[in-house]
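Q: Two folds, back to back.
A: First:
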Amino acid sequence: MKNVIKSDIPRSFSNSKTFFVRFFERPIPSSLVVLVLSLGFLTGCFFDKPQQPIYVETSNTAASVYSENDFGGDELPFGVKLQVNPSVLIPVELERVVDGDTIIIHDANGKQVRVRLTGIDAPESVHEDESKNTDEGREASKFLQELLANVDTVYLEMDVEEKDQYDRTLAYVWIDTGSTYIMVNEIMLATGHAKPVYIKPNLKYADDFRKYES
């Protein structure tokens, strides 16, 4: 009589193992493969998750003076429209605001320079003759001070003539919002704190400023 070696593996497990072996030996239906792959693509299993946007805060912006209502989609703050090629801008250190259309800056050599915002005229607020100063002028000066309160650097864009008869530098002054540059001259017009003036030869933005005529 032949020796019979009894297995310690239960018959039920042995049958199960045989079933799985036979099952996986069978060819997988192509329709099942298509179904699995389709589910994978639909649920995003085969794609990298999109990176979350990274917001970088900049210390030299004027964004703190803007309310959420100033921004709407592609709209710029205060309803301004003008944009600029940054390559034409000259960065300078802002010292202080004089009035609604004049600021004091330090140039690259550290020299103190008085800058007149060209193309606009704000009411008087610091005239030697106190009778010429107005409430509107004081409001314009206060607005500009608040606008530039947290700004360390402003950017000058020059026109044809760079000095006026009082030896003041004539410039379009831009500020960095963190995402784009906006012109202070235009902001003063858009908010009603100044009116446009057209003095040749500095007429680079004359056509743009005309829309702010009251």
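A: Second:
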Amino acid sequence: MRGLLLEEAIDSDYKNKKYGIVIGSEVISKHLDMTDRGSCILFGDGAGALVVSLDKDAIYAHTSGSKGSYEVLRVGGKNYNNSFVYMNGSEVFKFAVSTIPKCIDEVLKKASLTMEDIDLVVCHQANKRIIDAVRLKYKESEEKFPMNINEYGNTSAASVPILLSELHEKGILKKGMKVILTGFGAGLTWAANLVEI
């Protein structure tokens, strides 16, 4: 089990704060067609959780949306013959490399910050080429856009909390850091949060 213990995560002044737990968990392997080598090798099962607190003095901004389209990326459904993941890889790539920067720009604008103010951008670990394309758009270093997809594959909803846990374990996350968390997924949904550690 990776990550910070709940007791470690909660501030010593816990009685005066409100806390929540955000959980991302996927057992995507049960929805993979193992004969479809174009997609099944890309995914992994995983789970991660974050303890978050409400702090009126901390910076926070959020954006989210959906396109309501499952022709590009979906997990089965009643109108399909199976419940397997279907993905049109080239269309997902185009969608992600255009949508992620829009999310990042929107939360930066809402927080009245620029990319120079941000310490880390933690992207959904769907594809190295997607993350690199977004990073290069901002002319940022690989350190600012960390990745672990080569270790676990695309763990879907678990990818951001797993990577945050690893960054914490390595001592990279520090109190006061400004971090953008961003992701996208099936049905063509997207979201980003700008948070302060």
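Q: And?
A: Strands lie at 18-26, 46-54, 60-66, 73-75, 85-87, 120-123, 178-185, 189-196.
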